[in-house]
Amino acid sequence: MVIFIAALFVLTGAILGAGGIWLIVLGGSPYYAAVAVGFLATGWLLYRRRACALVVYAITLSATLVWAIWEVGFDWWQLAPRGGLPVLLGLALLLSAVRRRLSGDSLVGPANGIPFLALAGAVAATIIVAGYSMLQVPSTIRGQLTRDVAFQMRDGQANTGNEAGAGEWHQYGRTGFGQRWSPLDQITPANVKDLQTAWEYRTGDVKRPDDIGETTYQVTPIKIGDSLYVCTPHNIAISIDARTGGENWRFDANSGLNPDRQHQTCRGVTWWEAPAAAPAGATPEQVALHARALAECPRRVYLPTADARLIALNADTGAVCGFFADNGTLHLEQGMEFNPAGYYYSTSPPVATQGKLIIGGAVNDNFSTEEQSGVIRAFDVDSGALIWNWDSANPDSTTPIDIAGGETYTTNSPNSWSVFSYDETLGLIYIPMGNRVPDQLGMGRTPAVEEHSSSIVALDIETGRKRWVRQTVHHDLWDMDVPAQPVLIDLTRDGVVVPALVGPTKQGDLWVLDRRTGLPLSPREELPAPGGAIPEDFSSPMQPISKLTFRPDMLRDENMWGITVFDQLWCRIRFEQLNYAGQYTPPSLSGTLVYPGNFGVFNWGSVAVDPERQIMFGMPTYLPFISQLVPRAQIPERAPGETASELGINRNEGAPYGVKMGPFLSPLGVPCLAPPWGFVAGADLRSESVVYRQKNGTTRDMTPLPLKVKLGVPGIGGPIVTRGGVAFLAAAVDDYLRAYDVTTGDQLWEARLPAGGQSTPMTYEVDGAQYVVIVAGGHGSVGTRPGDYIIAYKLP
Question: Would you name the residues annotated as active-site residues?
């Protein structure tokens, strides 16, 4: 047994020594090489059966403890990989079966004397520190959001984002303001623990073996009257009875499968109820069409599809509204210079306002330099006729192009794939903008492209003309497109009500702007950014930052993590190898660490805002990515059966470089960044300050063992908040829907889901009862369990 343990020490010392020397050469910590000497010496002395092996290892273990506390403090999750294996080996040496076989030494005495006491003391000290560290949560920020009501919302109040009835949920974010706030208050922090399943519905649309990896279920149902309306990943629109969960009707768009689609998802459908009369100034033809629309489809839902169509359906029957566009279908590929199948589609519901359907589109990231335009278009809600088009690469011309005459939009102009917000009183629609593909290559971008990439743009609803633009990243080389629906809120500042916009970004900034002008309500800064772009490109020397921000600190060597000391050492070596000088380090041929990574601190799930208390609830996530440019000649041919993905090799056909992307993971498949990776957080929007931040989510579905450890895990999805003071959120990579106290961020309740809950919940009221609904269908990119569930909860 002693020989076996000696061999373990020698093997551990050899691995740590080799890796530690490599790490020193790269400029990293000298600890691993130094401690390797202790392991090797202990192993040699054990082989010689010398009792002083225990003393040598006691010194080694004590030094490890001091080093670990010096590096990371009393953070148990960071101490664990540093001390776990060393403590286990120390306990093995304390076994009497081992000590009996060790001979005494004139200097330290027999193995059951001073050597035993020295090692037992070192092991005990390490265990005590571990126990103390388990009680500490250094990542937590404790605080309480104000309960004071600054602005009282009234049901149906114009231009406050409360135009829907109290029990309704008319749009993706409930209203055009995108607040994800409900005035319902039946469910409270005191009774939310009593929630139970009211009904469960299964769509029948499940992930198929031949689906692309990014097949996800991200829909938020809308509720009008007694019905819910949803879409599924394969573009089936369904109406559901809000009381029972029974199916009213379904419509299958038959959008098929295409391996070149980067996403197979649907975030929602759009509701429209036709006004009783045609708009003033309508032509006789328009009046006649409006009369037909009013007769055939007075209430409609519009379904976006994965094959670039928009279909109008009768909300009462599911029948196609044949008067709209081409027999009920609007073809969104019109006007594109290049139109490769599967490269362009709409994953988010369009906005319906003032008789217009305003829609953007998702363009495959990094497939080709000849892809569809990111043009934003407004179509007549009845006829489908093009009213205006705003192309971010040609921003001053919004007159509809002459498609029949061969005019086209700008190829690869920055697009908007997320959800828009709008303010009908100001006559503005707010567009979260993405980037021009290829995302990581900035060569050849025009001034117009540079101005509008990764920004929030306000357009005139009537004309499509740009009113203002607020850029969140200059010369974006990191895919930091604005992913989230901007949230509109009337903020009280110094006794004055200011029409404001809250814009969450991937880098963790929340831009609080005057939505009339785009100007920040608090002073903003420009911070120096790293250089070092490839010779053909450049990087911006300065980058903007907002006052209210959840940006993480710059990564350091000691932030690297692992399950064991070995994969932690591997992560530290890899960290030193990567090109990283902080946020906005440019892409490189050797590989660049991008942090926050491509998933972003905030993504399409946005944040939830209480317009009365003027507070925000969100789910910041932290996960580094690696981005590596690959010269064209080194990109392999596409493998048979290979499907589209944002991870792995992105080919960038027509560009001098492709890009290889993926999360920064250890050989064991866990993030190299120390946890926690996911939080819930609250902020005061009047002061633009972070008030609390708490770990969110467990390891329950991250490992083969069903261990429910509250680690703080990544997530993608969004929250809602209610007047009752409760927030609801699924999103994390464990399969739960949770309720939180909005004031403190404390978790109050959870329900186990049958599949991943990577969607944003909603809440509604019918027959005096408040329901909370979540769609559980999983997410291909984060590996959660697929499914086809829609589940409603209510109080007994």
Answer: 479
